[in-house]
Specification:
Low-confidence stretches: none
CATH class: Alpha Beta
Strand content: 15-25%
Radius of gyration: 17 Å
Number of helices: 8
CATH superfamily: Aldolase class I
Distance between the termini: 46 Å
Structural class: alpha/beta
CATH topology: TIM Barrel
Order of helices and strands: EEEHEHEHEHHEHEHH
Number of domains: 1
Helix content: 25-40%
Shape: globular
Mean pLDDT: 95
CATH architecture: Alpha-Beta Barrel
Largest sheet: 8 strands, mixed
Length: 241
């Protein structure tokens, strides 16, 4: 079977993404995720057998139709968790490369390396979501520990793969001075980390939790204030070389 024939499950597409890697991106949201992040704005992407089945060839054809907008950008494979469908994601990367598209992977690194290495090896850029360095807090926020995401970061360092870190600022959880200082100091030792993006908690996905009948544990948590965001950004900047 050729790469173009490989099939996977897709949640949705965004044809003009500006927040998911360098330049303008065509974003492919893959279906399926084991994590249960309390702040997830796409809980409808969790179900492994949800979404729509499509072939790599069908997806690349959709991307090609937007090529003129992507000259200084490329393709970002997001989710859900793209590493969960590792064979499909790898095939999609290879076909995108044949078409001369830059490919980024937006991942929580939650999949063991024995399954994800092939994808990490082939992608041009990894957007890695670090939930928390505190393993117990990570379990509280996502229902899983942080072992795989930190192993993913270490592997990217070992293969010299560029990484952009993403970290969600959740008041009363991750938006704490001591935790941010610990994270900034930890990341300062990685040469592969080229950028750190702090993502303030937002409530745009709350309606999906209601529609799916899910209990929203952060319903009473407010979005970060401008002052809180500035405090967090100042801490990160102070540790960046």
């Amino acid at each position: 079977m050729s790469f173009a024939e490989v099939k996977g499950r897709i949640h949705s597409f965004e044809s003009f993404g500006t927040l998911d890697g360098p330049g303008i991106r065509f974003v492919v949201f893959l279906q399926g995720c084991f994590l249960r992040c309390k702040y997830c704005h796409n809980p409808d992407s969790w179900a492994i057998n949800g979404g729509t089945e499509m072939s790599v060839g069908e997806i690349v054809a959709k991307i090609e139709s937007c090529r003129n907008f992507l000259r200084n950008g490329g393709v970002t494979l997001s989710g859900g968790e793209p590493l969960l469908q590792s064979e499909f994601t790898h095939a999609l990367i290879e076909e995108c490369h044949k078409a001369n598209f830059h490919v980024a992977i937006d991942t929580a690194g939650s999949v063991p390396l024995e399954k994800s290495k092939k994808v990490l090896d082939s992608a041009d850029l990894i957007l890695l979501d670090i939930k928390s360095l505190d393993n117990e807090l990570c379990k509280n926020l996502t229902a899983f520990g942080n072992e795989n995401e930190l192993a993913t970061l270490d592997y990217c360092e070992s293969i010299n793969r560029d990484v952009w870190i993403r970290h969600v600022l959740v008041p009363e959880f991750t938006l704490q001075k001591e935790r941010l200082e610990e994270l900034a100091e930890f990341l300062s030792h990685y040469s592969c980390v080229k950028r750190i993006d702090l993502l303030p908690l937002h409530k745009m996905g709350e309606y999906k939790w209601r529609e799916l009948g899910l209990h929203d544990e952060l319903a009473n948590i407010n979005e970060p204030t401008a002052a809180e965001i500035e405090m967090a950004e100042k801490i990160i900047r102070s540790y960046r070389k």
